[in-house]
Design goal:
Helices cover 44% and strands 14% of the residues. The protein is an alpha/beta fold. The chain folds into two domains: 128 residues, Rossmann fold, CATH 3.40.50.2300; 53 residues, Arc Repressor Mutant, subunit A (Orthogonal Bundle).
Length: 207
């Protein structure tokens, strides 16, 4: 089931205990090779470009907005993104997968399940928390995620649709579309539609 070539990994920066546990866990697996670890958030895109790992393990709490998953995934399509969060809700996990993550796991997931998720993600298989016990309240340390309807509006905005066209497509009023758009801009940290389009087509840069 596992190929002879090791799964190359990049590990983002995590809380000290999580980071140590991840490194110790992965060191025990002969089929995994960490090529970079403790990578600060603003260095991720450069490190992924440099090493081209099969899997990157990301810290949900470090994301500034969910759109960052989309830009990372778009810029580094060969790298599978595994996101660890503090007891994520089903909605959070589904949205992370929709924005480009391959796997979403709680930080308190059992060790063997983390390893299994990385193996599955390296083959392009989507992985979610395996039981309801692993799901919890919204992680206050992560970005504010879009609602399902806001995600629908975002997709149409990205396609260049007008407010009237979006209202017709979603069978809602134009004022409702404007409200959703304002919420999207706030959550993604942009002020105009032009900035939104630029953000969704541009990978993060070093700051």
């Amino acid at each position: 089931m596992i190929g002879s070539a090791p799964i190359t990994l990049v590990l983002a920066r995590f809380e000290d205990l999580i980071a140590r546990g991840l490194r110790a866990l992965i060191a025990e697996d002969p089929y995994m090779d960490v090529v970079a670890s403790d990578v600060p958030h603003d260095r991720l895109t450069d490190v992924l470009a440099e090493h081209g790992p099969r899997v990157a393990v990301l810290n949900f709490g470090s994301l500034r907005s969910p759109i960052e998953l989309q830009t990372l995934s778009g810029a580094h399509g060969a790298t599978r993104l595994v996101v660890l969060a503090s007891r994520p809700t089903p909605g959070e996990c589904n949205q992370m997968l929709a924005f480009g993550a391959t796997a979403c796991l709680s930080k308190d997931t059992e060790a063997r399940d983390v390893l299994n998720a990385i193996h599955l993600a390296s083959r392009g298989l989507h992985v979610l928390p395996r039981s309801r016990q692993e799901l919890g309240p919204v992680d206050a340390l992560g970005p504010e995620l879009l609602t399902p309807r806001e995600a629908d509006v975002l997709e149409l905005l990205q396609r260049g649709r007008s407010n009237a066209e979006i209202a017709a497509a979603l069978t809602v009023g134009i004022e409702t579309v404007r409200t959703h758009a304002r919420n999207i801009y706030r959550k993604l940290g942009v002020r105009t539609r032009r900035e939104l389009v630029g953000l969704t087509h541009r990978a993060p840069t070093r700051r």
